[in-house]
Amino acid sequence: MPELPLYEYAVVRVVPKVEREEFMNVGVILYCRQKRFLGCIITLNEERLKALSPELDFDELKAFADGFEKTCRGEGPIGQLDPASRFRWLTAQRSTILQTSRVHPGLCAGPEDTLERLHRELVC
Predict the structure, then answer these.
(1) pLDDT < 70 positions in the chain
(2) Angle between helices 83-90 and 58-73 (to 10 degrees)
């Protein structure tokens, strides 16, 4: 029986006021070296986010999320890095409105299916 490939993932969070450390999970990023896969799913629910922070600039947040997704897809200056470097850059600790959790490992048969499952479990 072949071994399942290792993957790493982090939860993408919106942190409207960094000093308060309150957040809402809005996405998942997953990297699997063996399958040469780097992907993310980000879902911004404006109604839920406004309940967390009524003064949140949703257009600005959407722009940050779009940049995150583009980098993941290999677009832009950071997107020119290899997938492992992009994953490490995207999951680096930062004090901005869009942050990630610690990186967690796992084993999977298919990274696309695992990404979708994690998104359903951790975000929706």
Answers:
(1) 1-2
(2) 160
